[in-house]
Each structure stands twice: as structure tokens, then as C-alpha cells.
Design goal:
The protein is α+β, with helices and mostly antiparallel strands. The protein has 3 domains: about 70 residues, Helix Hairpins (Orthogonal Bundle); about 140 residues, Sandwich (Immunoglobulin-like), CATH 2.60.40; about 100 residues, Orthogonal Bundle (Cytochrome Bc1 Complex, Chain D, domain 2), CATH 1.10.760.10. Helix content is about 45%, strand content about 15%. It contains 12 helices and 10 strands. A hairpin with a 4-residue loop joins strand 6 and strand 7. Helix 3 runs antiparallel to helix 4. The longest helix is centred in the first third of the chain and has 34 residues.
């Protein structure tokens, strides 16, 4: 009976969608460079397999045919020049044969000349900022997986921890050069299907490139251990046709114009709190927690804090400039004046706090 139950349990596990989606190889490439990386990977695996068969085959043959039980007597020798030459020359030839395709692939990865589009990417703990410098479009890309899924209160989506609110959008068939840097610690921008993996280092600009050859959504992650929120820093690149990309670009420019107009608007307390809750969830909840109680010994509570209930000028300044020597980053480079005004207002009025609200003009006046 116990054996039958075990068999049923194993069968049910084996047939789950999670098991069905397992794959033992690299993701299917969609760029020329990614295809070369894939082919090199396959070639190396085949060479390793051949070496494994030859070495272990010879070893097992020797153990079987030259064992003492069949009357074989061990030979005593100290060195064999022929064997030493063979096991030196063959690996040398293998490495020399791999050097050409590997070097060519690396050089192609580094050739960022003559791009059709340049995007500056800045890593933050734990989000990405995309700046289309020639078009004046800039936005933050933040994890959009619901908190209930992260806390195991709801079923996990197919793209769990690999979904964002604002994906990077590029035109199909165009060479996209990316300039990478970081505002805090080392991050790494990695999208396997595009064949791109480049570190983002504070104080430095690193570059790479890709050309998506067909429309689609391509997902990746930060590949550098960048802190406690490392697992919550996904990358999503959406490749569109040129017409779709142009329409998206026009839409983004319109959003920026609306945001610019909103920067001088005066909002009601309810409007500020509604927008502020969204900004807080995306940027602050991972440290200060959704209930504002923080994590004792690591991240201070905002509920009932002196900052949230005290002078609003100091509260705004902390949001803009961060707190040196702590994990509190400067959100001034990341968030707009309306967003900072909204999140500060939310923190000052949520969880029983009784601070006053903040308008965009208050934030603008304190920016350096």
C-alpha cells in the first residue's frame, strides 16, 4: 500500500508543468552572437564527452583486462615519452582549434561600433533605469510580481520574478548599443537569449550590444550578487517591429510631457496617497515592509517614526539624498518630483502616522 502511494506521488510530481518545463541546455538564441555562444557550448560539451569516453574507457579496460585475478602481473615503469607527448599534444591541438571561434565570438561581442540605437542602463538596488539618450526618454523598470506570490499566499505565475512594470523596448533588426553603469553596487545585465551579459560597475561605463532578429519578449536577471533583493531584479526586453517601436516611443514621450505638466500640479491628499502607495510598494516595501514596520536590526520602521511624523523638509531630503553609511539609497536620481512627493505623503499618513502631505513643488525646491 505504501509503495503504491509513493508511486502515485512520484507520478503526480513528474507530470506537473514545472517538471515539463525543465530544460538541460541553454535558452534558444535569437541573435547571431547568442547562436555562436550556443554552438561553442555544444562543441565543448561534445569534446568533453569524447575525452570522458576515451579516458574512462581506457581506465575501465585496463582494470578489467589487467586485473590480478586473471593472472596478470603488473609492469614496473616510471615514464613513457610517447604517452607524455600524446597527452600534451592532443589537448594543445584541441585548445588551438577552439581558440579561433572563441576569439572571434568575443571580438564580435565587443564590437559596439555603428549602432542604430544607444540606451544607457543604470543599475540600482534593485531595479534598472533605461535612458534612450537620443530621444529624451527615461524610465525605471521594477519587478511587478505581486507580493502575495512572493510570500506564497497566491499561486505563482509562469513568469514569477521575471516580470517588470516597464520593459526595455527595442526595434527588431537594429543594432542596439547598451551603456552600463551602476549607482550603488556591482550589478550585471544578463539576457541569455540575446547573448548579452555585462557588469554594471559604479563609476565606470561598460558597453555591449545586441540585435534582436525577431519580435518577442526576452527575459533575464541581474547575474551579480548585489544584496538581499538580488533575486527581485529582473530584466525584460521587448522587441517590436519598427512601426510598433515608433508608436511606443511616441507614447513614452507623451507620458513624459504629462509628467512634466503634473510636476507643477497640486494634488489632493487622497490622490497623493494612492500614487504614493504604488511608489512605496515598488521601491521601499522590500526593506521597510508593506506594513511600514521595517526589519528590526536591519531596516528601521516608518510606522510611528520621528521622520514620518516630524519635519517634512528632513523627510524629503532623506528621500532625495539617502542616508550615507546605511542601506538607504538616494531616490533623487531615480524618481520624479511627483513620485517622491507622493511616496513621502503616503509614508507620513499611513500606518497611523499623522504627518502632513507633500507637494511636487516642495520636492523641487529641495533638489540640488
Amino acid at each position: 500500500m505504501m509503495g503504491k502511494r509513493l508511486s502515485i506521488a512520484l507520478a503526480s510530481i513528474w507530470t506537473t508543468p514545472v517538471m515539463a518545463d525543465w530544460q538541460l541546455n541553454l535558452q534558444k538564441p535569437v541573435t547571431e552572437v547568442a547562436q555562436r555562444i550556443y554552438d561553442l557550448h555544444t562543441l565543448l560539451l561534445l569534446i568533453c564527452l569524447a575525452i570522458f569516453i576515451v579516458v574512462f574507457g581506457t581506465m575501465f579496460y585496463a582494470l578489467l583486462k589487467h586485473r590480478k585475478s586473471v593472472g596478470h602481473e603488473a609492469h614496473h615503469f616510471h615514464e613513457n615519452t610517447t604517452v607524455e607527448i600524446i597527452w600534451t599534444v592532443i589537448p594543445l591541438l584541441i585548445l588551438a582549434g577552439l581558440a579561433w571561434p572563441a576569439t572571434k565570438t568575443i571580438l564580435d561581442q565587443r564590437d559596439t561600433s555603428d549602432p542604430d540605437l544607444t540606451v544607457k542602463i543604470t543599475g540600482y538596488q534593485w531595479k534598472w533605469q533605461y535612458d534612450y539618450m537620443a530621444d529624451g526618454v527615461k524610465f525605471m523598470s521594477v519587478l511587478s510580481t505581486p507580493q502575495d506570490e512572493i510570500e506564497n499566499k497566491a499561486p505563482k505565475d509562469a513568469h514569477y520574478l521575471l516580470e517588470v512594470d516597464n520593459p526595455m523596448v527595442v526595434p527588431v533588426g537594429k543594432k542596439v548599443r547598451i551603456l552600463l553603469t551602476s549607482a550603488d553596487v556591482i550589478h550585471s545585465w544578463w539576457v541569455p537569449k540575446l547573448g548579452v551579459k555585462q557588469d554594471a560597475i559604479p563609476g565606470f561605463i561598460r558597453d555591449s550590444w545586441f540585435r534582436a532578429e525577431k519580435p518577442g519578449i526576452y527575459r533575464g536577471q541581474c547575474a551579480e550578487l548585489c544584496g538581499r533583493g538580488h533575486a527581485f531584479m529582473p530584466i525584460v526586453v521587448e522587441a517590436k517591429t519598427q512601426a510598433e517601436y515608433d508608436a511606443w516611443l511616441a507614447s513614452e514621450k507623451q507620458k513624459l510631457n504629462l509628467q512634466s505638466a503634473a510636476a507643477n500640479a497640486t494634488l489632493s491628499a487622497d490622490e497623493l496617497k494612492a500614487q504614493g502607495e504604488k511608489v512605496y510598494t515598488a521601491n521601499c516595501a522590500s526593506c521597510h515592509q508593506a506594513d511600514g514596520k521595517g526589519i528590526p536590526g536591519a531596516f528601521p520602521a516608518l510606522a510611528g517614526s520621528k521622520i514620518a511624523n516630524g519635519d517634512k523638509t528632513e523627510h524629503i531630503r532623506i528621500a532625495l539624498e539617502g542616508v550615507p553609511g546605511t542601506a538607504m539609497p538616494a531616490f533623487g536620481p531615480q524618481l520624479s518630483d511627483p513620485d517622491i512627493a507622493a511616496v513621502v505623503s503616503y509614508e507620513r499618513t499611513a500606518w497611523g502616522n499623522h504627518g502632513d502631505i507633500v507637494q511636487s513643488a516642495d520636492v523641487k525646491a529641495l533638489r540640488k
